[in-house]
From TrEMBL:
Residues 96-407 form the Tryptophan synthase beta chain-like PALP domain. Its cofactor is pyridoxal 5'-phosphate. It comes from Solidesulfovibrio carbinoliphilus subsp. oakridgensis. It is an enzyme of class 4 (lyase). This is Threonine synthase. The keyword Secreted does not apply. SUPFAM superfamilies: Tryptophan synthase beta subunit-like PLP-dependent enzymes. The lineage of its organism: Bacteria, Pseudomonadati, Thermodesulfobacteriota, Desulfovibrionia, Desulfovibrionales. GO terms for molecular function: L-serine ammonia-lyase activity; pyridoxal phosphate binding; threonine deaminase activity; threonine synthase activity.
Length: 483
């Protein structure tokens, strides 16, 4: 019998590996880019092959039993401990309720519109209402580990953000407390009020700078290269490890059967699509899943450098070029120079070696399709954000291009809660989008409140007459029939 009441005994041997020059570095220091060549890192457990001594059924059973454990350290994303950060101790693990987000099947009507079955994975049901909590749980657990073993008395965490990263970073920093303080750097005027309120409410120092996310990222990179700060963007390889849990949870939801599954992910800064590919590769190597699901990255035509790269059919001719961005309702995806692109290229090659050609693809969608994807999903009972709308637009595009068959099951990543992006819905309903968005509302999606009586009308009536008149107006508006 597998016992999950005790913390795992396995400890990995982890190293930073530079994807540029292949140099390796000790994890006892915080690294974000390679000191030799400036390349980005992945984290590798050089002891991983020792896990192959156990059969796939062992890991499936273990992870399934942990999903119901009361051991706090194993309740969240670290229930996949051996696959993620097997160097921290139980006391280091930070758990705020992240992970375990549901997959909600599209209803018959919406599946009929798409022409194929699909699910939304609602990562907006994480603690700070976005998928970023997965990465922060892992990154802060390792940071807490370093603080404890090194007896650090002061750690300043810093991140650039379009909203979700800052909310998650500030929340986890506030919870861990002690020597850890949080600073977030945002592009002025390009974060929704809801997303700005979150780090402020968590007590973080919020600094606004002019420009877009890419400009903020350059500032943060300069700070991380020259000053003692802990960077929490996706250049932080520990964050990528935490986000691998998305792949693990998708596989677990389907009973470890990923055959003929397609996973749609908005690319943005490319950390999440990287993590998801890495996670599925680990499961396949262990034999926990037999086949890799196909991965579809999705990008808006307003910020599509990864799409442009893979749009070149000949790998020998591909050249990555950053692109200028224009306003996007999928704000987290409005990134023209994703820092994790080297990881995408690395894992896409590894993925296609096993999954074959087409196991990783990128589709491009319009801003009109993104906002209407969100509205369409939510009119059928979902709580999709604009990035979730981007995924639905991506699935519709893939179906149009014949890339997804009616018998395949798709999983769409709703990265955040709908309410974080409610302002874009309002702009659509009011037809108030600036021209740069290129969005023209379609009347069939517009929904506004209906007024039946003025305040002056109410003031002139007795309470009884008000009830009767208001009820009569509603009856007329709705065409109600008497019992």
């Amino acid at each position: 019998m597998i016992t999950v009441s005790d913390f795992p005994t396995y400890r990995g041997t982890m190293e930073y590996v530079c994807l540029g020059c292949q140099a390796r570095f000790d994890i006892r220091e915080l690294y974000y880019t390679c000191p030799h060549c400036g390349g980005v890192f992945i984290l590798e457990d050089t002891s991983f092959d020792s896990l192959l001594e156990y059969p796939a059924s062992y890991w499936q059973s273990l992870f399934d039993k942990r999903a119901a454990t009361r051991v706090t350290a194993l309740r969240g994303v670290l229930r996949f401990y051996e696959l993620m950060a097997p160097v921290v101790d139980e006391e280091d693990i930070v758990y705020l309720g992240e992970g375990h987000t549901p997959l909600v099947a599209a209803n018959e009507a919406l599946s009929g519109i798409v022409g194929a079955p699909f699910y939304y994975k609602n990562d907006g049901q994480n603690p700070s209402a976005s998928f970023k909590d997965r990465g922060m749980a892992c990154a802060f657990s390792y940071l807490k580990h370093l603080v404890r073993v090194n007896d650090w008395d002061s750690v300043l965490t810093v991140c650039a953000s379009t909203g979700d990263t800052s909310a998650a970073a500030a929340l986890y920093a506030a919870y861990v407390g002690g020597p850890i303080k949080s600073v977030v750097i945002l592009p002025k005027g390009k974060v929704t009020p809801q997303q700005l309120a979150q780090p402020l409410g968590s007590g973080a120092t919020v600094i606004e700078v002019p420009g877009v996310f890419d400009d903020c990222m350059k500032v943060v990179e300069h700070l991380a290269d020259n000053f003692r700060v802990a960077l929490l963007n996706s250049k932080n390889a520990w964050r990528i490890l935490g986000q691998e849990s998305y792949a693990f949870e998708v596989a677990q939801w389907f009973g470890w059967d990923t055959y003929r599954k397609c996973v749609f992910v908005p690319i943005g800064n490319a950390g999440n699509v990287t993590a998801i590919m890495s996670g599925f590769l680990k499961l396949q190597k262990l034999g926990v899943i037999r086949s890799l699901p196909r991965i579809f990255g999705v990008q808006s035509h307003h910020a599509d450098p990864v799409y442009q790269y893979y749009d070149e059919a000949d790998p020998a001719k591909r050249r990555f070029e950053p692109v200028p961005v224009t306003p996007s309702v999928a704000q987290a995806a409005m990134i023209g120079n994703p820092v994790s692109f080297p990881r995408v290229a690395h894992y896409a090659r590894e993925y296609e070696k096993i999954g074959g050609p087409g196991s990783f693809q990128v589709v491009q969608v319009t801003e009109q399709a993104i906002i209407e994807g969100m509205l369409l999903a939510n009119r059928h009972g979902h709580i999709s954000c604009t990035q979730g709308g981007e995924c639905l637009a991506g699935l519709l595009k893939a179906r149009e291009l014949g890339l997804v068959e009616p018998s395949e099951v798709s999983i769409l990543d709703a990265t955040a809660h709908h309410l974080k992006f409610i302002g874009f819905q309002e702009m659509y309903f009011e037809n108030s989008f600036p021209a740069a968005y290129g969005i023209t509302p379609d009347a069939k999606y517009v929904n506004r409140p209906r007024s039946i009586m003025t305040d002056a009308d109410k003031a002139a009536l007795s309470p009884e007459d008000y009830t009767a008149k208001a009820s009569a107006a509603i009856v007329e508006a709705l065409g109600l029939a008497r019992k």
